[in-house]
Amino acid sequence: MTIITRADIEQAHARIAPHIRRTPAMNLREAFGHPGPVSLKLEFLQHAGSFKSRGAFNTLLSNPVPAAGVAAASGGNHGAAVSYAASMLGVKARIFVPEISSPAKIAVIRSHGAEVVIGGARYADAQEACDAYVAESGALRIHPFAAGSTIAGQGTVGLEWEQDAPTLDTVLVAVGGGGLISGIASWWAERRVKVVGVEPEGSRALHAALQAGKPVDVEVDSVAADSLGARNTGDLVHAICSRTIDHVALVTDASIREAQAALWRDYRIASEPGGAAALAALISRAYKPEPGERIGVLLCGANVELTKLAELTR
After folding, report:
1. CA distances (Å), origin 96, targets 68, 130, 141, 268, 272
2. Tens digits of per-residue pLDDT, 52-101?
3. Is 3.40.50.1100 the CATH classification of the domain at 67-138?
4. How confident is residue 135, by pLDDT bands cut at 50, 70 and 90?
5. b vs e for 82-99, b when ≥16 Cβ sit within 10 Å of the residue's Cβ?
6. How far is CA 50 from CA 31, 55, 307, in A?
7. Of 160, 154, 211, whose CA–CA distance to 177 is shortest?
8. How confident is the model at residue 251 (pLDDT cuts 50, 70, 90)?
9. What is the reported pLDDT for 106?
10. Is residue 202 within 8 Å of 253, Cβ to Cβ?
11. What is the domain class of 6-51+147-312 according to CATH?
């Protein structure tokens, strides 16, 4: 499947609605130095602390689950979401995590009852370990971005956001592997809303793929690498994003930290680095809106170590 339709996303929403939170949008008259409306989609309030519960539930509810249960590779948030969804549906889960995963995220995964396996130094290594386990055990693999059911589930963020902020001109969406932006851009495909991806300068898999005209491997080195750390988008994400998004803006680690600090200082929102990356594009002017442009900023994750947040906000 290379096209995710609005109908696919509507069906996914109907399927997962009893199991997820409909997260609010905070609509501000002006904020973060932008002289125009800003809508913050507070997706970090989702079960397990990020948007990824949507895709996890949609995949579990639209596929037969074998006796071996489910398996996933994750820098943390996807694993937490799969662990949570599996526990709610009475399914056993094994999550393969890279060594760079934060202790806070691993603790969330374990809190929902999943078995945690260290699968290597980086996300790609954990994915290889997960794939080997799936081949051996027959478990259902829940991929964080390279699956239509995951992308359709993530696209339900766009469905809700459009209902709560119907006049948006542009939305800024952080990109790791690209499942979230693929779903949101699919929801707004052929509509007037411009979808802009945001990646750290040191973790730019989608930016590199769009430049090369195909998925390519990239090095990963960013403060947000535990959630925005995919080495390669894969064919499905590239196929969708190459026709649906406007462009990808790149942000520095310093601007991500600044966005985290601003969210805490101004709104008492505790965001992880990846969750604040989209806002970093607005604050740093990596994305430069027109004065009256109606901007949406997706705050997508809050599995942050509070000691690190405290260091940023002293």
Report:
1. 15, 6, 11, 32, 21
2. 999 999 999 999 999 999 999 986 889 999 999 999 999 999 999 988 88
3. yes
4. very high
5. bbbbbbeeebbbbbbbbe
6. 23, 11, 20
7. 154
8. very high
9. 87
10. yes
11. alpha beta
